[in-house]
Design goal:
80 residues, alpha+beta, 4-stranded antiparallel beta sheet
Length: 80
């Protein structure tokens, strides 16, 4: 009987650690391009989970240059 009591906490820990963590995310993107006004867009993502949540949460900046044109995209996502 004692062995069962030792296994219960381990089993509970396994069950809770395997649950997905999902959140709703509100994201804002600011797109800047040389010679053009900035463009801002807002999007909402529902039920973003696990690896996708890790990738989207926070601030990410992309920059690319082609010839004389430079473009950058800054994305900020707040997930709750």
């Amino acid at each position: 009987m004692k062995k069962i009591f030792y296994l219960i906490p381990i089993l509970c820990l396994f069950i809770f650690s395997s649950c997905q963590k999902c959140k709703d995310c509100s994201c804002s993107q600011v797109i800047s391009q040389s010679g053009m006004p900035d463009v801002t867009q807002n999007v909402q993502f529902n039920d973003v989970c696990d690896e996708d949540l890790d990738e989207i949460e926070g601030t990410i900046t992309y920059t690319q240059n082609v010839g004389d044109i430079s473009q950058s995209v800054e994305q900020t996502c707040d997930c709750k």
